[in-house]
Specification:
The structure holds two protein chains of two kinds. By secondary structure, chain A is α/β, with parallel strands linked by helices. Helix content of chain A is 40%, strand content 21%. Chain A has helices at residues 48-56, 58-61, 93-103, 108-121, 137-149, 167-184, 220-226, 228-234, 246-251, 256-274, 321-328, 351-357, 374-384, 389-402, 418-427, 448-463, 475-481, 499-504, 506-512, 518-539, and strands at residues 8-16, 25-32, 37-41, 66-72, 77-80, 155-159, 187-191, 204-208, 214-218, 283-292, 295-305, 310-314, 336-341, 344-345, 358-361, 436-440, 467-471, 484-489, 492-497. Chain B has helices spanning 13-27, 33-50, 55-79, 96-120, 125-134, 140-169, 178-205, 224-242, and strands spanning 85-89, 92-95. In chain B, helix 1 (13-27) packs antiparallel against helix 4 and helix 3 runs antiparallel to helix 4. The chains are: A alpha/beta, B mainly alpha.
Amino acid sequence: MITMSSLLGCKNLTVQFSGQMKPVLNIVSLDFQPGENVLILGPSGSGKSTLLSVLAGIIPNHIEAKVKGEVIRKQKVGILFQDPDTQFCMQHVDEEIAFSLENRNVPTEEMVLKIKALLDMVGLKVGLHGKIDALSGGMKQRLALACVLALEPDVLFLDEPTAQLDPASRKELFKLLKQLASSTGKTMIMVEHVLDGCMEWMDRVILLNKHGEVIGDGHPQYILAKYKSQMEEAGIWRPEVYPYEWHEIIRNKNHPLSKQLNEKYLQSKMKKEALQHNTDSLMSAAAVTISYERKTVLRDVNFQFGKGEWISIIGKNGSGKSSLIKVLAKLKKISKGSVVFKDIHLKRWKESQLYEKIGFVFQNPEWQFITKTVYEEILFSGEQQNVRQESAEAKALELLKEFGLLNYLNRNPFNLSFGQKRRLSVATMLLLNQEVLLLDEPTFGQDKHSAERLLCLLKKRQELGTTIVMVTHDMNIVDRYSNRVILFDEKSLCFDGHPFSLFSDDMLLEKTGLIPPLHYAYERAVKEEYLLGKQSILLVPN
Amino acid sequence: MESNQSCLSQINPSYKLIAHIIVMVMLMFIGNPIKTLVFWIAFLLLGLAIGGWTVRYLLKVMVPYCLFFVLVFWMLAAFGKGDNEIWQWAWFRITEESIGNGLTISLRMLAFVTIGLLFTSTTNLHLFMMSLIHQLKVSPKWAYGFMAGFRCIPMFQAELVQLKDAHRIRGYKQRRGWQSFKRYAIPILTNAIRKSERMAIAMEARGFTGSRDRSYYKTTAITPIDVLYVSLLLLFAISMVFL
C-alpha cells in the first residue's frame, strides 16, 4: 500500500502487452523502502521482468504497454540487464563509462577521475582504454555495473544479472553486489534465477504466480518456509543451503540437510563403484589442437569414448568446451591431430552420412528451426536423407509424444515456449536414431521443471544406447547423470574420468576454481572438522 | 576502426574525410595512366611517411588488391576497343588504347583503396564521431547510434556462422543465391532488430536522449595543422589534374 513516506512503489498495477489475451501483471500493489534489498521470484512468464521495467520507467517510456494503476518512481534509477553484450555502445572501457557521465552532463575535466573511481568500485582491473570485446562475461557485467553506478542512481534494478555467467563469475558478481548494497546503502531490486549467493543478504522476497499476481511478500526465510509447495510447483529453483547455516549443518550430523547430503554423497560413490567399463571406442580424439584466428583454444587433447556413455564437458567460459564439441561434429576445423568416428577419420566422412549418426543441439534452439510447423520440423531430416515416408511419419509422432509436443503439431516452432523449443530442437536430432548426441548447455536458462524433463528424456535415450556428450556448467547435473567428465583448464584437458573422482580431488578443484556439488563440499568440510577436533583433543593433554 | 599513433591520426577526422573524398573525386578526372601511377605512389609514400604504415603492413593489405588489379587490367586491356592493334589471339585483342585504359582504371582503383585505407587506418571511431558532432554538426543521436551499430558487426558475423552450422547439421543443403540469402537473412535480421531494440533501451535507460545538451569525454577541434593538411592535399590533387 502506498503510504506518504514511500517513494517507490505501485498500487493496483495491471500491465498488458498489445496482442496478448491476458495481462502479464495483475493488480499488483507494492511499496519499497529506501535501502531495501528485494528479490522478485516467480515462474517463467510471471511478469518479473515486466514489474522491474515498470518500476524503472522503461515501461511505458521505451516499451509500449497498457498500464493501469498508480506507479511512483524514483527520478534517478539504474538498470543492469542480463545480456552483457547489448548494454554497451562503445568500443573501449573508458568511453563506455564516460557515456553515462556525458548523459548526466558531468564536466569533461572531472570524468577521468570518476571513471577510475568507478572501475575501482566494481573491482575491474583493466586498462582505462581497454577494449570491451576483450573482456570476459563476468568482467563485462562489472563494467555494465560501473556504467549504471556512474548515473548515481537512488535505486538499482537488476534483471537477472548473472544469467549469462559461469558459476565462478556468478559467485564473484553476487559478492560484489552484496558488498555494494551494504557500503552504499542503495535500494536494490533484483530478478534472479539462481538463489545461492544472493538470497542470504536479501531483506525481502516477493513471490509472483504465473498469472502475474503477488502471492507472497516477506522475509526470505518466511517465504521459503511458507510457500515451499507453490515454489516447487512453479518450478522455481530453491537455494541449496539457505535458510540453514553451513557450519551448523557440518557440526550437527542429525540435521535434516546433513542426512540428505550424506545420502547423496553415498549414492554418487556407489554409482562410481557400479560403473562397468566400456572398452570399445566409438569416437576418439588424438592430439587434437584447436585454434581460432591464430590463437590456440585447446592444445593436445586426447580421449576416447564408447557407446552409451554420458560425458559432461566442463570448464570456465571461453575454455574451449563449445569449440571441442563443434570439432567432434565436424563443424570446426582441427589445426593439428585427428578425430576418428567408427574407425573412419572424421575428415573422410561425408556430411550427409555423418549427420545421420551424429546430432548436435545448439545453445540457441531457434537457429536450428527450418520449417513452418513442429511436425515438419521433426520430419525434415528424414526428407533430406530419403527415409521412407511412412516409417518417418510414425517415428516423428512417436518422438513428439515422447517429448510432450503432440498437442503442438501445427504450431510454428518459433511460437513455442522456451522449454518446448529446447525439447523440439533435441527431438529433431533423433529421427534417424543418431548414435551420438552433442549438446551445448541444454539446460541453460530453463526453469527447474523444463530442465529436469529434458534430462529425463536424455537419460532414457542413453539407456537405449545413445551416447550423450554435453557441455554444461551445472555440477549437479554432471554428478547425477554423467558417468564421465572431461575438464578443460588453461587450454588443455586436465581431467578425464568419473565425476566422483573429480569432485573428490580437492587439489584439482582448488587449482581450477571449480565449485563441486554441495554434498562433496559437505563431506570435505565434515572431514576437516573431524581432523580439527582430533587435533584439539590431542593438544589438550599438553 | 582503431587509429595507429601516427601524425595523420592527429588530424581532425571529419576534415580528413572530406579532403580524402574530394581528392578521390578529382582523381576520376585524370585519364592518364602515368599521372594516376604518380598519384597512387604519392599516397603510398604519404602513408609510409606520416601514416604510420610499414612496408610489411602495406604488402599484407595490398596483395589481394594487386591480384584484383591484374584481373581488372587484363579484362580492360584484352576486351577494350581501339585501333592500334598490338596483339591478337582468338577473341583477345589488345590495342594501345585498351592498355592505356586498363592501366588507368586499375591504377585508379588501387589509388582509391590506398586513400580510403589511409583514412580508416589512422582514424579512431570515437574521435571520428566526435568530430562529426562538433565540426560537422551531426546530431549526437546519429553519431552515437552509429557507434552502437558498429559494435553489432562482429556479433552478426558470429551469428551467421552459427546459423549456417545449425542448418548443416540438420542436413539442409546449401542453395545458392536468393534462396539461401532468404534462409539466413530473415533470422539474422529478426535477431538484429531484437538486439538493437535492447541496445536502444539500455542506452536510453542510461539517460541518453540524443539531444546536444550533454558534456563530452573527448572533443575534437580544428588546428592550423588540419588546415595545412587539407590544403596541401587539395593543392597536390589540383596540380595533378591541371598540369
